[in-house]
Every structure is written in structure tokens, then in C-alpha cells.
Design a protein that fits this description.
two-stranded antiparallel ribbon, 4 strands, Growth Hormone, Chain: A, mainly alpha
């Protein structure tokens, strides 16, 4: 006697039979995002120590902090082509090795130029991870759940950011609050940068426990292996042979994407410009100022070093909360509504920060009202970013492009993101210290406001569509 399958309640979609396995696969792939977040943010705890040890000014310091983003842009630009040639999994392993080497080199630099070199290597790994993670997850996740699984990338990024701040805070306490304090023969900031070697190795180990992307396997003629992978991630009632045939047919109609494929005449295809715009706006609102410079920022307005590190950590916790909200909503309400809500919330929060920082310091501190407003607004800004643009951009970049240009287009969009990130990161110390902290936040608020009409006019909803439908 057989038991009929009970259909899911109206309005809900039955989960894949292998949901736990899919969660493990996507979680392991998202370790690249964790390293992306950790490596990007860990420098926050070392900024002042690097300035003092190497006796450099704001401009040179900004270049050392931001130079990793140049490596990230290069890594993102080439990752898609590398992944198409050797596979997504091997690309992850290369990234793991580069993360590991960068962590060791950054912790033991000979001089400031050596530190900058190792940060470029780490940046290259970040760029690769920023492309491979979303692409791989989009290719293995069932369409109905791809938004939530795609959100794992951003979830891992914010966990990496939070853990880096927690580790930095713990190391600072061991060093009695001194970033240059001695711990077993090394300065505290060196330990902060070196600890990343542990998750970097874990990322490489996990890459041996997950399957290759079925779309890559089909592209190189390994259809039986692709079928086996699809059997691991799809519902049992899915016709696997038909699914393999569908993907194969789509691939026969296309060829490997190159930079030339992104061009329509002499201009980028419109969808590529949308991807570039999404990437740029995600960074131009100044989100990474909150993670690269927050400890230094709060100290500049009179908050003591220990408290400034604590506020950096609480901001990271808010980042996690916002990301969890986004993961819960992205497949229910869609990508576009979340982006709209986020743009509105960020504009208000950044405007309040700009107002608060316009106050004159009293005894080196912001007045109580403005100081409290700045702290609350900073946390609200991160919350609205995390529940919207922080997640939906990575989800959209992984799924919005047609199969014919996905790898190349994602690489171009991710490169644009890193270039915008570099522009914000490299300019903040000079803008805030030599020009106006309030004026700097007005600029970020303007970009947040401009992101709203951009979404309304150019961004299309992708919720519930298969990757083959994106063409």
C-alpha cells in the first residue's frame, strides 16, 4: 500500500527531499563569503597600529587599507573564466590557498610594501570568492529556494565580519587594549591578521566534500556526473534526464561567455549595465566605511578605543540580524521590494548621521544628543543595508544574467563592485579628516537616495525563475 504525498499548504512550496544536503553544499561554498567578510573587515582592528608602526599619513594608510580591493577587482574579473575552464570547485581551492598565504604574509610583513603585497594577494582571493560563491550556489540550488540559498553568501560575509570584530576585540583585551601590545613575540595587530589562516584552511577542506556544479559538468560532457549531482539537490519526483536535457539544450544554444559577448555593438548589453549599477550602488552608500574604519571613526569623535571596538562588534551583530531577515523574506516578497525598502531606510539613516557629525566637538567628543543619534543611525543604516542590498545584490548577480553571458557578466559586475569599494575606502580618510565628516556622509546619503529610482526603473524581479528562463 502506498501513501499519497500530501501537497504543501496553499502558497507554499514543498522543500527538496535533500534539503539538509543542499544546505551543507551551499554553506560550504559560502565559506568563501565568510573569508571575504573576515579578510575585508579584520583590517579595522589594525589601522591605528599600522599607522604608528610604519609612521605613515592618512593618504598612505588609506592606500594600504584599500589596495586589497585592487586585487579583488582583478580576481573577480578573471574568476569566471577560470571557473569555466577548470571548474568551480578547483577555483575554490585556489582561492583557499591564496587566502592562507595572504594571512601568513600579512601577519609577518617585512615592511609596509610587503604588507601591501600580501593584501593584494588576499584581495585577489576575495575577488575570486565573490564570483564563484554566488555562481556555484545559483547553479546547484533549486529555483524555488535559490534566493534563500543565494543569501547564504551574504550571510557568510556578515558572519565573517562579525567574527573578525570579535576576534579583534578578544586579541585587544589580551594585549591590554594596545593594538601594538606584545603577545608571544608578535604585536596584537599581527595576530589579528594571521588568525584568518584557520578558516582559510577549512574552506579548502570543505571544497573536497561538495560536488562540482552540474552546469559545469554538462558543459564539459560529463552528463552522468551532472545527473548524479542533480539527484543530490532536486526533489525525488523531478525527471532528472529531462532536467539534464533542458540544461544541455540551453548550453548547446550558447557558447562560453567572453568580454565580447557582453557587448551590443560597441556598448555593454543593458543587463550588464544593470549589474554594474547594482554593484556600484551597493558600495557607494559607504557600507564598508562601517567595517573598515568604524573603530577609528568612533575614536575620532571621542569614544575610547575599547568602546569603539565594542560598537564595531555590535554593528556586526546588527548586520547578521538584518541578513537573517533578508534570508527569510527574499523568496517570499522578492528581490525588488527588499531593495526599495533598503534604499529608503539607508537614505534616512545616513542623513541622520550626516546631521550628527556636523556638530562641533566638545572636549573632543560629540554632544550627547548628536553622539547618541550617530550611534543609533549607524546601526539602523547597517540594518537596512543588510536586510536589502547586502543580500539581494549577490542573489541577483548570481541569477539575473542569461546563461550565455553569466560568467563574464558576473565577473564584470563584481569587478565594478570592488572598484567602487576601493573608491570609497581610499577616499574616506582624506574626505573625513581633511574635508568634512558630515559632508562625506551627505555624499553617501545621496547615493542611497539615487539607488531608489535606479531599482524602480531598471531592476526586474527574478524570484522563482529557473536560470534557463533568464535568457
Amino acid at each position: 500500500m502506498t501513501t499519497a504525498k500530501i501537497p504543501p499548504p496553499e502558497g507554499r512550496i514543498a522543500p527538496p527531499d535533500h534539503i539538509r544536503h543542499v544546505i551543507f553544499i551551499t554553506g560550504a561554498a559560502a565559506m568563501g563569503g565568510f573569508l571575504f567578510g573576515y579578510d575585508s573587515s579584520v583590517i579595522n582592528g589594525a589601522v591605528q597600529a599600522i599607522r604608528e608602526r610604519y609612521d605613515i599619513g592618512s593618504l598612505a594608510l588609506a592606500q594600504v587599507i584599500a589596495i586589497a580591493l585592487i586585487g579583488s577587482a582583478i580576481g573577480a574579473a578573471v574568476a569566471g573564466r577560470i571557473a569555466d575552464r577548470i571548474g568551480r570547485i578547483r577555483c575554490m581551492r585556489i582561492s583557499s590557498v591564496l587566502f592562507t598565504i595572504s594571512a601568513v604574509g600579512s601577519a609577518l610583513p617585512f615592511d609596509i610594501y610587503d604588507l601591501a603585497f600580501w593584501r593584494i594577494i588576499g584581495g585577489f582571493a576575495i575577488g575570486m570568492a565573490s564570483v564563484i560563491g554566488p555562481a556555484y550556489i545559483a547553479e546547484v540550488a533549486p529555483a524555488a529556494y535559490r534566493g534563500r540559498f543565494g543569501s547564504f553568501q551574504q550571510g557568510a560575509i556578515v558572519l565573517g565580519i562579525a567574527l573578525s570584530q570579535l576576534v579583534n576585540y578578544g586579541i585587544l583585551q589580551i594585549a591590554d587594549g594596545d593594538q601594538r601590545g606584545d603577545i608571544a613575540g608578535l604585536e596584537a595587530w599581527q595576530w589579528m591578521l594571521g588568525v584568518m589562516v584557520l578558516p582559510a584552511i577549512l574552506y579548502g577542506v570543505l571544497s573536497f566534500a561538495i560536488p562540482e556544479s552540474p552546469r559545469y559538468l554538462i558543459s564539459v560532457g560529463r552528463r552522468e556526473q551532472a545527473r548524479a549531482v542533480l539527484a543530490e539537490v532536486e526533489n525525488r519526483d523531478v525527471d532528472l534526464d529531462a532536467r539534464v536535457a533542458e540544461i544541455g539544450l540551453a548550453m548547446r544554444r550558447e557558447h562560453k561567455s567572453t568580454f565580447r559577448d557582453l557587448l551590443n555593438g560597441r556598448n555593454f548589453l543593458p543587463i550588464v549595465w544593470v549589474g554594474i549599477g547594482l554593484s556600484a550602488f551597493q558600495q557607494l552608500v559607504g557600507i564598508n566605511v562601517a567595517f573598515y574604519y568604524s573603530a577609528t571613526l568612533w575614536q575620532s569623535v571621542g569614544i575610547n578605543p575599547s568602546s569603539s571596538f565594542f560598537y564595531s562588534f555590535t554593528t556586526s551583530i546588527v548586520n547578521i540580524i538584518g541578513t537573517v531577515i533578508a534570508i527569510a523574506l527574499v523568496d517570499r516578497v522578492g528581490r525588488k521590494p527588499l531593495a526599495i525598502v533598503g534604499s529608503c531606510g539607508m537614505t534616512v539613516a545616513l542623513s541622520l548621521e550626516a546631521w550628527a557629525f556636523s556638530a562641533k566637538l566638545v572636549n573632543g567628543k560629540l554632544p550627547n544628543t548628536e553622539g547618541t543619534t550617530a550611534l543609533i543611525a549607524a546601526h539602523v543604516f547597517v540594518l537596512f543595508f543588510a536586510l536589502s542590498w547586502g543580500v539581494i545584490v549577490w542573489v541577483l548577480l548570481g541569477e539575473m544574467f542569461p546563461n550565455t553571458i553569466r560568467a563574464a557578466a558576473l565577473g564584470v559586475a563584481a569587478s565594478a563592485q570592488w572598484i567602487a569599494n576601493y573608491a570609497i575606502t581610499a577616499s574616506f580618510p582624506s574626505l573625513s579628516a581633511d574635508w568634512s565628516l558630515s559632508g562625506t556622509y551627505i555624499i553617501y546619503a545621496c547615493f542611497a537616495a539615487l539607488s531608489l529610482p535606479f531599482v524602480l526603473k531598471f531592476v526586474k524581479e527574478t524570484r522563482g525563475k529557473t536560470l534557463e528562463e533568464m535568457g
